[in-house]
Amino acid sequence: MTTKTPVLTDKAPKPLPGIYSQAIIANGVVYCSGAVGMDPVTGALVEGDVKARTHQCIKNLTAVLQGAGTSIDKVVKVNVFLDDMANFAEMNSVYTQYWGDVKPCRTCVAVKQLPLGTDVEIECTAVL
């Protein structure tokens, strides 16, 4: 049976107790939960637009990946959830600044609603 190791870092927003983990490590792979643009200290969404919250999503994922012993450059798959595809270009203008030279595979979809009424949520999978 595969061992599942939870990841918990105080450098990213805390997960809801008993609901989910920030990430799980299994078989040399790190599966990160979705990250919203929440400040890990205040617990509030960062002020600004979808660009500001996209930066914060990726900062939060970076912290979780580091807590797992890997990095953003080792991400192989990203899923982006937007509340409106009208935010696609602005999110991409930030997104392209990250992930290294070889960008991971990606899916981007619009959904009806996201946690805390935010406009973007990002999740990823990385190798150790």
UniProtKB/TrEMBL annotation:
<dbReference type="GO" id="GO:0019239">
    <property type="term" value="F:deaminase activity"/>
</dbReference>
<dbReference type="GO" id="GO:0005829">
    <property type="term" value="C:cytosol"/>
</dbReference>
<dbReference type="InterPro" id="IPR006056">
    <property type="entry name" value="RidA"/>
</dbReference>
<dbReference type="GO" id="GO:0005739">
    <property type="term" value="C:mitochondrion"/>
</dbReference>
<dbReference type="InterPro" id="IPR006175">
    <property type="entry name" value="YjgF/YER057c/UK114"/>
</dbReference>
<comment type="similarity">
    <text>Belongs to the RutC family.</text>
</comment>
<protein>
    <submittedName>
        <fullName>Uncharacterized protein</fullName>
    </submittedName>
</protein>
<dbReference type="InterPro" id="IPR035959">
    <property type="entry name" value="RutC-like_sf"/>
</dbReference>
<dbReference type="Pfam" id="PF01042">
    <property type="entry name" value="Ribonuc_L-PSP"/>
</dbReference>
